[in-house]
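[SOLVED] Need 3D model of a two-part complex

Original post:
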Amino acid sequence: MSAHEVKSETAGLSKSTRSFGVALALASVVNGLLVVAKESSPAVQAGMQKLTGHHWITHSTIILGLFFLVGWGLGRINGGQGIRLTPGKLLSILVSGVVLGGLIIIGFYLVGD
Amino acid sequence: MNEVILMAHVLFGVGCLLTTLWVLVDTLNASPKNLARIHRLSKVAAACMWVAFAIGGYWYVVFYKVDKAIILKGPWPFAHQFFMETKEHLVILLLLLVTYLPIAAAGNLVANRDARRVVLVVATLIIGLALTAEGDGAIIAMGVKMGLLAR
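Solution:
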């Protein structure tokens, strides 16, 4: 892929849209995996409970923190230009992450719990 | 007071849903005339969701244990075991998406087809998840009602 193609592909979306889009996908999957971890391990659940007084508050804080931190971090890479990816690729990552994160939660409570 | 908190949670949740639907329709018809409105409404949707999340979270942490006990002793234990358990974690996903909406909608959606596509996809995901959350909430409320009727 030439430099011109990379420029035209990434020019369509802003740095924040790309960075926080990927962060959203990642946080969605981690959200699902954290559900499995805390529901499967009483120690994890107790630890999360102890941190803020309620496992759900800890859970929400971790996921929101991850979203903002990863989004901010991805926006700083490539010399401050942010993560490079095409609009189509961003949408694939975003939709896959959200759907996978949702399916992990639903699947776990449907069959795993 | 408990009921007022719960109704405010639903009110702001529906506010987020309707505002996002408005953003979706306006984005499908994006023009210089409605661009400022899209930017404004995407922020309103996020604000509604943050308020709904904070109120719902407060209610869940402080008051829900009473309802949970009623549901689990009643004929609809799945209202907690599946619907509440999934809802309390799917709304985090919803909050992420709605927080992302104003970020995705911040550019010139009239000139930028790619940005429009992202907003349309994100808004569609929000609407689907918000409707799921509303449905979950209805089943949870019905689980409490069934538990009380069975007493």
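Edit: DSSP finds five helices and no strands in chain B.
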